[in-house]
Amino acid sequence: MYYVYILQSLKDRSYYTGLTTDVEARLKKHNSGQVAYTSMKCPFKVAWYCCFEDKLKAANFEKYLKSGSGFALARKRLV
Q1: Domain that holds residue 55
Q2: CATH no. for residue 14?
Q3: Residue 12 and residue 4: Cα distance in Å, rounded?
Q4: DSSP H helical segments within the chain, as ranges?
Q5: What is the pLDDT of residue 68?
Q6: How far is CA 43 from the centre of its chain?
Q7: What is the pLDDT of residues 18-58, one digit of tens each?
Q8: pTM, to two decimals
Q9: For residues 36 and 50, what is the distance between their CA atoms, to the nearest angstrom?
Q10: CB 66 within 8 Å of CB 57
């Protein structure tokens, strides 16, 4: 299974969207500072996630959430 997830920084309330096969392990990496992009915004909590069987569909949905209209949808309806 593939998960598209949105994390919220407890430090500055910003959001991060990503794709993984293990949400819990990925959250631990973000919170331990092992992800360069989010290392200055630790700690994080999972704000939302969705499961996909197909990797391509998951990747396309993650890409959509990072686009303008997907970003708006995520902030208005998902988190």
Answers
A1: 2-78
A2: 3.40.1440.10
A3: 22
A4: 23-31, 55-65, 68-73
A5: 94
A6: 14
A7: 999 999 999 999 999 999 999 999 999 999 999 999 999 99
A8: 0.94
A9: 24
A10: no
